Here is the input.
Amino acid sequence: MTTIKQIRENSPIILNVSNMVTPQHVADAINFIGASPIMFDDIKEASDLVNISNALVINMGSSNDADVEKSIAAGKFANQKGIPVVIDPVAIGASKLRQDNFAKVAKEVKFDGVRGNAGELAFLADIEWNAQGIDAGNGDGDLHEIAETVAKKFDCITLLSGVTDVISDGSKTVEVKNGHHYFAVNVGCGDMLDGILGSCLAVDNSLDSAVLASSILSIAGEIAGGITDNLPYSFLSTVFNTLYQLTDEEITEFQKLG
Here is the structure.
């Protein structure tokens, strides 16, 4: 089973196709748990950067041709090298362009992890859900069914993040019930989780590693929320401080699984 100690000992290099909003938050989250981020901008670097990396994280929040092309190029190199690929289908239900771009990447690249909120993963699962842009929105679908359907569809691990995170490999499904409501008012926390998920899968590509990724950020938020009551902006900086200090013993102590 992967531990945060192993991440810090191995310091895996995580290559990121980030969106325009959150590259600093993502790089910080990866760095503060002990992995090493690289933010990837030019397709001409794809082969060289994948060659030195231990995982690739693709965030589809920036829907332009250049990002799609470099995502495909890096993803194919990552598949050839055998390193995990994580994708985040940001607001996929919001526009046909986002749907088409995801389909282009999915056609060419094998994913090891898909991380999204309920609305995004429900869209991939063809389950009706009232998503609201980048927010999960509202629906009455079964979150386990959504996560399991997407896992089976792409033969991967899914991490459906929300008030309760639901992680599935299509046959086994686990809930992580930690967290804090200030995650919802700080844009980019899901993107941070993408990077943490890539870091965990880089050490061990397994369902247990995805559960650890969810637990790391959720528990950090739970601890930070207790320190920054009614200070949602200060909450995020405290999350980063907590990620840096978080131990496996604290994870074991605070972790609430279902």
